Amino acid sequence: MKTVQHQVQNPSAQNQHKGASTLWVLLALALGTFALGTTEFASMTLVPYIASDLGVEVAHVSYAISAYALGVVVGSPIIMVLAVRVRRRTLLIALAGLMAVANGLSALAPSLNWLIFFRFLSGLPHGAYFGVAMLLAASLVPPEMKARAVSRVIIGLTLATIIGVPFATWMGQTVGWRSGIGIVAILATITAIMVYFLAPNQAVPADASPKKELQTLKNREVWLTLGIAAIGFGGIFCVYTYLAETLIQVTQVEPFKIPIMMAVFGIGATLGTLVCGWAADKSALAAAFWSLVLSTVVLAIYPSLTGHYWALMPVVFFVGCGLGLATIVQARLMDVAPDGQAMTGALVQCAFNLANAIGPWVGSLVILSGQGIAATGYAASLLSLGGLLMWWLTHRESRRVVTLNTANCAD
Protein backbone atom coordinates (compact mmCIF):
# COMPACT_ATOMS: atom_id res chain seq x y z
CA MET A 1 0.00 0.00 0.00
CA LYS A 2 2.83 2.36 0.80
CA THR A 3 4.40 1.57 -2.52
CA VAL A 4 1.20 2.38 -4.40
CA GLN A 5 0.79 5.62 -2.50
CA HIS A 6 4.33 6.62 -3.40
CA GLN A 7 3.70 5.87 -7.07
CA VAL A 8 0.55 8.01 -7.10
CA GLN A 9 1.99 10.97 -5.22
CA ASN A 10 5.34 11.11 -6.96
CA PRO A 11 4.05 12.28 -10.38
CA SER A 12 2.17 15.08 -8.64
CA ALA A 13 5.33 16.17 -6.87
CA GLN A 14 7.22 16.08 -10.16
CA ASN A 15 4.55 18.23 -11.85
CA GLN A 16 4.70 20.76 -9.03
CA HIS A 17 8.48 20.86 -9.30
CA LYS A 18 8.25 21.27 -13.08
CA GLY A 19 5.77 24.12 -12.65
CA ALA A 20 8.02 25.87 -10.18
CA SER A 21 11.00 25.38 -12.47
CA THR A 22 9.09 26.82 -15.43
CA LEU A 23 8.21 29.92 -13.43
CA TRP A 24 11.86 30.47 -12.54
CA VAL A 25 12.93 30.04 -16.16
CA LEU A 26 10.28 32.53 -17.30
CA LEU A 27 11.49 34.94 -14.62
CA ALA A 28 15.08 34.69 -15.90
CA LEU A 29 13.95 35.22 -19.49
CA ALA A 30 11.73 38.13 -18.47
CA LEU A 31 14.64 39.84 -16.73
CA GLY A 32 16.39 39.96 -20.10
CA THR A 33 13.36 41.52 -21.78
CA PHE A 34 13.13 43.91 -18.82
CA ALA A 35 16.67 45.05 -19.60
CA LEU A 36 15.87 45.35 -23.31
CA GLY A 37 12.68 47.26 -22.59
CA THR A 38 14.54 49.62 -20.28
CA THR A 39 17.27 50.42 -22.80
CA GLU A 40 14.88 50.74 -25.74
CA PHE A 41 12.22 52.92 -24.11
CA ALA A 42 14.44 54.83 -21.69
CA SER A 43 16.51 56.07 -24.61
CA MET A 44 13.32 57.81 -25.76
CA THR A 45 12.47 59.40 -22.42
CA LEU A 46 16.10 60.51 -22.04
CA VAL A 47 16.04 62.38 -25.37
CA PRO A 48 15.85 65.90 -23.81
CA TYR A 49 18.78 65.18 -21.47
CA ILE A 50 20.93 63.58 -24.18
CA ALA A 51 20.30 66.55 -26.46
CA SER A 52 21.23 69.02 -23.72
CA ASP A 53 24.40 67.16 -22.70
CA LEU A 54 25.68 66.60 -26.26
CA GLY A 55 24.58 70.03 -27.49
CA VAL A 56 22.36 68.83 -30.35
CA GLU A 57 18.73 69.25 -31.41
CA VAL A 58 16.09 66.99 -29.86
CA ALA A 59 14.98 65.80 -33.31
CA HIS A 60 18.57 64.73 -34.11
CA VAL A 61 18.77 62.49 -31.03
CA SER A 62 16.00 60.42 -32.63
CA TYR A 63 18.69 59.16 -35.05
CA ALA A 64 20.21 57.20 -32.16
CA ILE A 65 16.80 55.65 -31.45
CA SER A 66 16.36 54.71 -35.08
CA ALA A 67 19.92 53.30 -35.13
CA TYR A 68 18.99 50.94 -32.29
CA ALA A 69 15.93 49.80 -34.20
CA LEU A 70 17.94 49.25 -37.37
CA GLY A 71 20.45 47.22 -35.35
CA VAL A 72 17.57 44.93 -34.41
CA VAL A 73 16.46 44.63 -38.03
CA VAL A 74 19.98 43.71 -39.16
CA GLY A 75 20.98 41.51 -36.24
CA SER A 76 17.83 39.47 -35.63
CA PRO A 77 17.54 37.37 -38.82
CA ILE A 78 21.31 36.98 -39.27
CA ILE A 79 21.91 35.77 -35.73
CA MET A 80 18.86 33.51 -35.64
CA VAL A 81 19.68 31.81 -38.95
CA LEU A 82 23.41 31.39 -38.34
CA ALA A 83 22.86 30.18 -34.77
CA VAL A 84 20.00 27.77 -35.51
CA ARG A 85 22.23 24.85 -34.49
CA VAL A 86 23.32 26.51 -31.23
CA ARG A 87 21.60 25.46 -28.02
CA ARG A 88 19.11 28.05 -26.85
CA ARG A 89 20.61 28.49 -23.39
CA THR A 90 24.09 29.07 -24.82
CA LEU A 91 22.77 31.56 -27.36
CA LEU A 92 20.78 33.48 -24.72
CA ILE A 93 23.87 33.81 -22.52
CA ALA A 94 25.93 35.13 -25.44
CA LEU A 95 23.22 37.61 -26.43
CA ALA A 96 22.88 38.90 -22.88
CA GLY A 97 26.66 39.38 -22.77
CA LEU A 98 26.62 41.41 -25.99
CA MET A 99 23.73 43.42 -24.56
CA ALA A 100 25.82 44.26 -21.49
CA VAL A 101 28.89 45.35 -23.46
CA ALA A 102 27.03 47.44 -26.05
CA ASN A 103 24.93 49.30 -23.48
CA GLY A 104 28.01 49.97 -21.38
CA LEU A 105 29.67 51.55 -24.42
CA SER A 106 26.52 53.60 -25.13
CA ALA A 107 26.74 55.07 -21.65
CA LEU A 108 30.32 56.18 -22.39
CA ALA A 109 29.63 57.69 -25.84
CA PRO A 110 31.58 61.00 -26.21
CA SER A 111 29.42 62.39 -29.05
CA LEU A 112 26.15 61.90 -30.90
CA ASN A 113 27.87 60.03 -33.75
CA TRP A 114 29.44 57.57 -31.34
CA LEU A 115 26.13 57.20 -29.51
CA ILE A 116 24.39 56.38 -32.79
CA PHE A 117 27.01 53.70 -33.53
CA PHE A 118 26.86 52.15 -30.05
CA ARG A 119 23.06 52.16 -30.09
CA PHE A 120 23.22 50.25 -33.37
CA LEU A 121 25.44 47.66 -31.65
CA SER A 122 23.03 47.56 -28.70
CA GLY A 123 20.19 46.68 -31.05
CA LEU A 124 21.95 43.68 -32.64
CA PRO A 125 21.12 41.15 -29.85
CA HIS A 126 17.65 42.56 -29.12
CA GLY A 127 15.50 40.67 -31.61
CA ALA A 128 17.45 37.43 -31.37
CA TYR A 129 17.14 37.42 -27.57
CA PHE A 130 13.39 37.99 -27.78
CA GLY A 131 13.02 35.34 -30.47
CA VAL A 132 14.99 32.64 -28.63
CA ALA A 133 13.44 33.49 -25.25
CA MET A 134 9.89 33.24 -26.61
CA LEU A 135 10.63 29.94 -28.35
CA LEU A 136 12.10 28.53 -25.16
CA ALA A 137 9.11 29.73 -23.13
CA ALA A 138 6.62 28.22 -25.59
CA SER A 139 8.45 24.88 -25.45
CA LEU A 140 7.91 24.63 -21.69
CA VAL A 141 4.08 24.64 -21.78
CA PRO A 142 1.25 22.85 -23.64
CA PRO A 143 0.41 24.23 -27.13
CA GLU A 144 -2.85 25.80 -25.97
CA MET A 145 -0.92 27.95 -23.48
CA LYS A 146 1.93 29.12 -25.71
CA ALA A 147 0.60 32.68 -26.18
CA ARG A 148 0.30 33.10 -22.43
CA ALA A 149 3.85 31.79 -21.93
CA VAL A 150 5.09 34.23 -24.56
CA SER A 151 3.22 37.04 -22.78
CA ARG A 152 5.08 36.19 -19.55
CA VAL A 153 8.37 36.80 -21.35
CA ILE A 154 7.16 39.99 -23.02
CA ILE A 155 5.82 41.23 -19.68
CA GLY A 156 9.43 41.89 -18.72
CA LEU A 157 9.43 44.59 -21.38
CA THR A 158 6.16 46.08 -20.17
CA LEU A 159 7.31 46.04 -16.55
CA ALA A 160 10.35 47.94 -17.74
CA THR A 161 8.01 50.73 -18.80
CA ILE A 162 6.57 50.81 -15.26
CA ILE A 163 9.77 50.43 -13.24
CA GLY A 164 12.87 50.50 -15.42
CA VAL A 165 12.02 53.47 -17.64
CA PRO A 166 10.76 55.79 -14.87
CA PHE A 167 13.82 54.90 -12.79
CA ALA A 168 16.15 55.50 -15.73
CA THR A 169 14.34 58.78 -16.42
CA TRP A 170 14.80 59.84 -12.81
CA MET A 171 18.47 58.86 -13.03
CA GLY A 172 18.77 60.95 -16.19
CA GLN A 173 17.26 63.94 -14.41
CA THR A 174 19.35 63.68 -11.25
CA VAL A 175 22.62 61.92 -12.14
CA GLY A 176 22.77 62.10 -15.93
CA TRP A 177 21.45 60.19 -18.93
CA ARG A 178 24.53 57.96 -19.04
CA SER A 179 23.57 56.29 -15.77
CA GLY A 180 20.07 55.63 -17.12
CA ILE A 181 21.52 53.56 -19.97
CA GLY A 182 24.51 52.16 -18.07
CA ILE A 183 22.30 50.37 -15.55
CA VAL A 184 21.12 48.12 -18.38
CA ALA A 185 24.62 46.66 -18.63
CA ILE A 186 24.25 45.44 -15.03
CA LEU A 187 20.79 43.98 -15.68
CA ALA A 188 22.06 42.15 -18.76
CA THR A 189 24.94 40.64 -16.80
CA ILE A 190 22.54 39.35 -14.13
CA THR A 191 20.35 37.92 -16.89
CA ALA A 192 23.25 35.91 -18.33
CA ILE A 193 23.99 34.46 -14.89
CA MET A 194 20.35 33.54 -14.19
CA VAL A 195 19.88 31.92 -17.60
CA TYR A 196 23.02 29.86 -17.08
CA PHE A 197 21.77 28.43 -13.77
CA LEU A 198 18.01 28.21 -14.43
CA ALA A 199 17.29 27.61 -18.12
CA PRO A 200 17.17 24.00 -19.40
CA ASN A 201 19.99 23.07 -21.74
CA GLN A 202 17.69 21.74 -24.44
CA ALA A 203 19.15 19.78 -27.32
CA VAL A 204 18.98 21.33 -30.77
CA PRO A 205 16.26 19.67 -32.93
CA ALA A 206 17.84 17.14 -35.27
CA ASP A 207 16.22 18.68 -38.35
CA ALA A 208 17.14 22.29 -37.51
CA SER A 209 18.93 24.03 -40.37
CA PRO A 210 19.27 27.52 -41.87
CA LYS A 211 17.71 26.27 -45.13
CA LYS A 212 14.58 25.07 -43.34
CA GLU A 213 14.21 28.36 -41.50
CA LEU A 214 14.63 30.34 -44.72
CA GLN A 215 11.69 28.46 -46.25
CA THR A 216 9.51 30.62 -44.00
CA LEU A 217 10.26 33.60 -46.24
CA LYS A 218 8.04 32.06 -48.93
CA ASN A 219 4.96 32.21 -46.69
CA ARG A 220 2.71 35.17 -47.63
CA GLU A 221 0.82 34.99 -44.33
CA VAL A 222 4.09 35.55 -42.48
CA TRP A 223 4.89 38.74 -44.41
CA LEU A 224 1.39 40.16 -44.09
CA THR A 225 1.35 39.48 -40.35
CA LEU A 226 4.72 41.19 -40.03
CA GLY A 227 3.25 44.13 -41.95
CA ILE A 228 0.65 44.59 -39.20
CA ALA A 229 3.47 45.10 -36.71
CA ALA A 230 5.81 47.13 -38.91
CA ILE A 231 3.17 49.73 -39.79
CA GLY A 232 0.56 49.55 -37.05
CA PHE A 233 3.02 49.56 -34.17
CA GLY A 234 4.81 52.63 -35.53
CA GLY A 235 2.08 54.87 -34.13
CA ILE A 236 2.92 54.00 -30.53
CA PHE A 237 6.61 54.78 -31.05
CA CYS A 238 5.76 57.97 -32.92
CA VAL A 239 4.07 59.32 -29.78
CA TYR A 240 6.14 57.65 -27.05
CA THR A 241 9.48 58.87 -28.41
CA TYR A 242 8.43 62.49 -27.90
CA LEU A 243 6.19 62.03 -24.86
CA ALA A 244 8.74 63.40 -22.36
CA GLU A 245 9.45 66.43 -24.53
CA THR A 246 5.70 66.96 -25.05
CA LEU A 247 5.18 66.99 -21.29
CA ILE A 248 7.95 69.59 -20.99
CA GLN A 249 6.98 71.83 -23.92
CA VAL A 250 3.19 71.58 -24.13
CA THR A 251 1.91 70.25 -20.81
CA GLN A 252 4.63 72.18 -18.93
CA VAL A 253 4.73 69.81 -15.97
CA GLU A 254 7.18 69.65 -13.12
CA PRO A 255 10.05 67.21 -13.85
CA PHE A 256 8.93 64.69 -11.20
CA LYS A 257 5.62 64.15 -13.04
CA ILE A 258 7.31 62.82 -16.18
CA PRO A 259 8.31 59.43 -14.68
CA ILE A 260 4.77 59.10 -13.31
CA MET A 261 3.31 59.43 -16.79
CA MET A 262 5.84 56.91 -18.08
CA ALA A 263 4.73 54.48 -15.39
CA VAL A 264 1.09 54.97 -16.44
CA PHE A 265 2.10 53.98 -19.97
CA GLY A 266 3.85 50.93 -18.53
CA ILE A 267 0.83 49.84 -16.49
CA GLY A 268 -1.28 50.00 -19.64
CA ALA A 269 1.36 48.01 -21.53
CA THR A 270 1.49 45.31 -18.85
CA LEU A 271 -2.27 44.87 -18.59
CA GLY A 272 -2.59 45.03 -22.38
CA THR A 273 0.01 42.27 -22.78
CA LEU A 274 -1.72 39.98 -20.29
CA VAL A 275 -5.15 40.51 -21.85
CA CYS A 276 -3.80 40.11 -25.38
CA GLY A 277 -1.99 36.89 -24.41
CA TRP A 278 -5.29 35.44 -23.24
CA ALA A 279 -7.16 36.73 -26.30
CA ALA A 280 -4.52 35.50 -28.77
CA ASP A 281 -4.87 31.92 -27.48
CA LYS A 282 -8.52 32.14 -28.59
CA SER A 283 -8.18 34.09 -31.87
CA ALA A 284 -5.02 35.98 -32.77
CA LEU A 285 -6.57 37.76 -35.76
CA ALA A 286 -9.60 39.01 -33.82
CA ALA A 287 -7.36 40.19 -30.98
CA ALA A 288 -5.13 42.06 -33.44
CA PHE A 289 -8.12 43.84 -34.97
CA TRP A 290 -9.44 45.22 -31.68
CA SER A 291 -5.97 46.16 -30.47
CA LEU A 292 -5.38 48.24 -33.62
CA VAL A 293 -8.81 49.87 -33.43
CA LEU A 294 -8.11 50.95 -29.84
CA SER A 295 -4.71 52.38 -30.79
CA THR A 296 -6.10 54.27 -33.79
CA VAL A 297 -8.76 56.00 -31.68
CA VAL A 298 -6.66 56.94 -28.65
CA LEU A 299 -3.76 58.21 -30.76
CA ALA A 300 -6.15 60.49 -32.63
CA ILE A 301 -7.43 61.85 -29.29
CA TYR A 302 -3.92 62.36 -27.87
CA PRO A 303 -3.06 65.79 -29.43
CA SER A 304 -6.18 67.52 -28.07
CA LEU A 305 -5.32 66.57 -24.48
CA THR A 306 -1.58 67.21 -24.35
CA GLY A 307 -2.17 70.51 -22.53
CA HIS A 308 -3.92 68.79 -19.61
CA TYR A 309 -1.80 66.43 -17.52
CA TRP A 310 -4.56 64.54 -15.71
CA ALA A 311 -6.80 64.27 -18.79
CA LEU A 312 -3.83 62.99 -20.80
CA MET A 313 -3.10 60.22 -18.31
CA PRO A 314 -5.89 57.76 -19.34
CA VAL A 315 -5.05 58.34 -23.01
CA VAL A 316 -1.40 57.44 -22.37
CA PHE A 317 -2.61 54.38 -20.44
CA PHE A 318 -4.57 53.11 -23.46
CA VAL A 319 -1.70 53.95 -25.82
CA GLY A 320 0.40 51.66 -23.63
CA CYS A 321 -2.22 48.91 -23.92
CA GLY A 322 -1.36 48.80 -27.61
CA LEU A 323 1.94 47.09 -26.78
CA GLY A 324 -0.07 43.90 -26.29
CA LEU A 325 -0.03 43.61 -30.08
CA ALA A 326 3.47 42.11 -29.74
CA THR A 327 2.09 38.98 -28.07
CA ILE A 328 -0.69 38.67 -30.63
CA VAL A 329 1.60 38.89 -33.65
CA GLN A 330 4.06 36.40 -32.17
CA ALA A 331 1.27 33.90 -31.46
CA ARG A 332 -0.08 34.35 -35.00
CA LEU A 333 3.34 33.67 -36.53
CA MET A 334 3.75 30.50 -34.49
CA ASP A 335 0.48 29.28 -35.99
CA VAL A 336 1.16 30.12 -39.64
CA ALA A 337 4.84 29.08 -39.68
CA PRO A 338 5.29 26.11 -37.29
CA ASP A 339 8.40 24.88 -39.16
CA GLY A 340 10.26 28.19 -39.08
CA GLN A 341 9.79 29.49 -35.58
CA ALA A 342 13.38 30.63 -35.12
CA MET A 343 13.11 32.80 -38.21
CA THR A 344 9.67 34.17 -37.32
CA GLY A 345 10.87 34.88 -33.79
CA ALA A 346 13.55 37.08 -35.31
CA LEU A 347 11.37 38.60 -38.01
CA VAL A 348 8.70 39.74 -35.58
CA GLN A 349 11.32 41.74 -33.70
CA CYS A 350 12.54 43.15 -37.00
CA ALA A 351 9.00 44.26 -37.75
CA PHE A 352 8.45 45.90 -34.37
CA ASN A 353 11.77 47.66 -34.49
CA LEU A 354 11.21 48.73 -38.05
CA ALA A 355 8.14 50.36 -36.54
CA ASN A 356 10.47 51.81 -33.90
CA ALA A 357 12.53 53.34 -36.70
CA ILE A 358 9.53 54.56 -38.71
CA GLY A 359 7.64 56.03 -35.75
CA PRO A 360 10.33 58.44 -34.46
CA TRP A 361 11.27 59.37 -38.04
CA VAL A 362 7.67 60.25 -38.94
CA GLY A 363 7.41 62.16 -35.67
CA SER A 364 10.57 64.12 -36.46
CA LEU A 365 9.14 65.08 -39.86
CA VAL A 366 6.00 66.42 -38.17
CA ILE A 367 8.04 68.42 -35.65
CA LEU A 368 10.53 69.81 -38.16
CA SER A 369 7.68 70.84 -40.48
CA GLY A 370 6.45 73.20 -37.77
CA GLN A 371 3.21 71.36 -36.96
CA GLY A 372 4.08 71.16 -33.28
CA ILE A 373 5.17 68.22 -31.17
CA ALA A 374 1.62 67.34 -30.11
CA ALA A 375 0.69 66.73 -33.77
CA THR A 376 2.73 63.51 -33.65
CA GLY A 377 -0.50 61.94 -32.36
CA TYR A 378 -2.30 62.51 -35.66
CA ALA A 379 0.55 60.95 -37.63
CA ALA A 380 0.62 58.07 -35.13
CA SER A 381 -3.10 57.43 -35.64
CA LEU A 382 -2.59 57.22 -39.40
CA LEU A 383 0.18 54.64 -38.89
CA SER A 384 -2.12 52.57 -36.71
CA LEU A 385 -4.81 52.86 -39.39
CA GLY A 386 -2.24 51.52 -41.85
CA GLY A 387 -1.84 48.55 -39.52
CA LEU A 388 -5.59 47.92 -39.85
CA LEU A 389 -5.20 47.86 -43.62
CA MET A 390 -2.49 45.24 -43.26
CA TRP A 391 -4.79 43.31 -40.91
CA TRP A 392 -7.49 43.26 -43.61
CA LEU A 393 -5.01 41.92 -46.17
CA THR A 394 -3.85 39.29 -43.67
CA HIS A 395 -7.42 38.24 -42.91
CA ARG A 396 -8.20 37.93 -46.61
CA GLU A 397 -5.07 35.81 -47.20
CA SER A 398 -5.96 33.60 -44.23
CA ARG A 399 -9.41 32.91 -45.68
CA ARG A 400 -7.85 32.13 -49.06
CA VAL A 401 -5.47 29.60 -47.50
CA VAL A 402 -8.29 27.93 -45.55
CA THR A 403 -10.41 27.66 -48.70
CA LEU A 404 -7.47 26.22 -50.66
CA ASN A 405 -6.66 23.67 -47.96
CA THR A 406 -10.32 22.62 -47.76
CA ALA A 407 -10.44 22.12 -51.51
CA ASN A 408 -7.25 20.05 -51.43
CA CYS A 409 -8.65 17.83 -48.66
CA ALA A 410 -11.86 17.31 -50.66
CA ASP A 411 -9.80 16.15 -53.63
UniProtKB/TrEMBL annotation:
Membrane topology: Multi-pass membrane protein
Ranges of residues in domain Major facilitator superfamily (MFS) profile: 25-399
InterPro entries per record: MFS (IPR011701), MFS_dom (IPR020846), MFS_Efflux_Transporters (IPR050189), MFS_trans_sf (IPR036259)
One annotated GO molecular function: transmembrane transporter activity
One Pfam family here: MFS_1
Keywords tagged on the record: Cell membrane, Membrane, Transmembrane, Transmembrane helix
Chief location: membrane
Subcellular location: Cell membrane
GO cellular component terms, A-Z: plasma membrane
Record Gene3D superfamilies: MFS general substrate transporter like domains
Name of this protein: MFS transporter
